[in-house]
Amino acid sequence: MAADVIVRKYRQKDAGPLCVLVVRSVKQVASYDYSADQVRVWADRVPSRERMDDLGLDGRLRFVAVDLMDEPVGFADLERNGHIGYFYCAPEVVGTGVGRALYEALEKEAVELGLKRLFVEASETAKPFFIWLGFSVDHKREFEIERVPIHNWAMVKLLSAS
Ligand SMILES: CC(C)(COP(=O)(O)OP(=O)(O)OC[C@H]1O[C@@H](n2cnc3c(N)ncnc32)[C@H](O)[C@@H]1OP(=O)(O)O)[C@@H](O)C(=O)NCCC(=O)NCCS
Prior knowledge:
Helix content: 25-40%
CATH superfamily: Gcn5-related N-acetyltransferase (GNAT)
Order of helices and strands: EHHHEEEEHEHEE
Bound molecules: coenzyme A
CATH class: Alpha Beta
Number of strands: 8
Mean pLDDT: 96
Distance between the termini: 25 Å
Number of helices: 5
Structural class: alpha+beta
Shape: globular
């Protein structure tokens, strides 16, 4: 993993930086695989700081990769039913193992919770990453956001209880 990055649980002060991180990740990383219009409508859906903080009210677990200054460089969450909602790395750390570190923390908790299955709607950009992690594609999802056609991939991984 990138040197000097650790994964810890979400703290309230992370909300603002995570909103910025997610928008940057969409605009600078996912933009390799999506059109300008798709990136625009996707980035517009990133929650406000207040909403980002409130997401935890449903009991989801949130994992934040931080640098030495405790600044977030990656973010993932795990809902209690095994759904992964958010999975984003800052553009400057993409490809350095931060995503893998986030996933390892997430899967460890999932196993401890007794979850049998993880599932995610992975972006085109994240699809190879999730395949590498042992997920398989269930189906392609084609939908619209603000009348802009876009797609992602429903993917699933069965967890073994070992
Ligand atoms: C998907 C994402 C979180 C992956 O994070 P990351 O930090 O780049 O992932 P890692 O560096 O830990 O990669 C782990 C392994 O996954 C594989 N992998 C990751 N991205 C890959 C890609 N685009 N193509 C092929 N393999 C890839 C690599 O094999 C890598 O292992 P290696 O370093 O030994 O080669 C990151 O690319 C991202 O933030 N993307 C934009 C936002 C997005 O689309 N989020 C998904 C919403 S569902």
